Backbone:
């Protein structure tokens, strides 16, 4: 499965790109009951190495946490990644161009030409996988890398310190979210990514800055609300159902009085009335934003 990496998938799950300021304070919340605490930190999976996102508040939450939670393993062996990507991201029966409308193909071609990617290289990718490959391109052109992202950096930090790690999903479960989408939803996703690559929104470069400054209103209205309204199947699969499942898991852990946990997941999972902070508050916990 050529040109599609673990980083492309991680990047695509948050739909963010662009360059930002050198340092700031991404959004974080404290969820509390009488005998347990959960810190919720909205991450960005792909970052440039010079972006300084760690703060005293984050380092404190990390230090006191008994466990760190992630969406999935950020350090899965590459051999396992390749097997799963081939299983869920490749279509050996129908080519990508067989699925695309003439209009969608005409939109895609200039994006590939700009990046020097032959269409033939994508022919066996499923539309969602091709969209992931395209979505990560602006980040990597700006020097971004998964290794510099919050998830990978924090995973490495925890492994080095022998701090326990927990995950909400396996990597295979993440891929199946996309693999189980209706084909039209996959095609819509690819078309959206291609169109934004051709005509980036005027405030697109501000998305990383919005994340760094903790501007959840901007991220919510700019990305989450747009997805919810314009692409409801993607919103339901990528955000809503997963947020509900994760909130249920955290609720169960807190009811057992498990101590202190730090949750590091994509920032879009924190936004809006169906984001994790709102869902935990609806379950009766004390929730306050601390950064």
Residues:
């Amino acid at each position: 499965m050529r040109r599609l990496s673990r980083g492309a998938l991680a990047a695509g799950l948050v739909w963010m790109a662009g360059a930002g300021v050198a340092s700031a304070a991404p959004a974080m919340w404290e969820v509390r009951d009488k005998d347990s605490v959960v810190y919720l930190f909205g991450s960005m999976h792909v970052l440039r190495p010079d972006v300084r996102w760690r703060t005293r508040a984050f380092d404190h939450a990390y230090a006191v946490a008994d466990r760190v939670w992630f969406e999935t393993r950020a350090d899965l062996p590459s051999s396992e990644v390749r097997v799963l990507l081939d299983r869920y991201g490749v279509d050996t029966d129908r080519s990508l161009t067989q699925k695309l409308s003439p209009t969608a193909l005409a939109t895609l071609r200039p994006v590939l030409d700009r990046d020097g990617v032959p269409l033939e290289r994508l022919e066996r990718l499923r539309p969602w996988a091709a969209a992931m490959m395209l979505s990560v391109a602006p980040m990597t052109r700006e020097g971004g890398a998964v290794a510099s992202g919050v998830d990978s950096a924090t995973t490495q930090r925890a492994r080095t310190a022998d701090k326990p790690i927990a995950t909400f999903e396996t990597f295979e479960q993440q891929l199946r979210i996309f693999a189980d989408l209706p084909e039209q939803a996959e095609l819509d996703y690819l078309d959206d990514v291609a169109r934004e690559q051709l005509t980036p929104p005027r405030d697109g470069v501000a998305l990383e800055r919005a994340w760094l400054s903790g501007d959840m209103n901007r991220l919510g209205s700019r990305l989450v609300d747009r997805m919810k309204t314009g692409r409801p199947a993607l919103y339901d699969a990528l955000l809503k159902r997963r947020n509900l499942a994760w909130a249920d898991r955290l609720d169960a852990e807190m009811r057992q009085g498990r101590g202190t946990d730090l949750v590091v997941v994509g920032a879009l999972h924190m936004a809006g009335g169906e984001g994790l902070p709102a869902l935990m508050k609806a379950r009766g916990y004390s929730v306050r934003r601390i950064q």
Remarks:
- Confidence is low (pLDDT under 50) at residues 1-23.
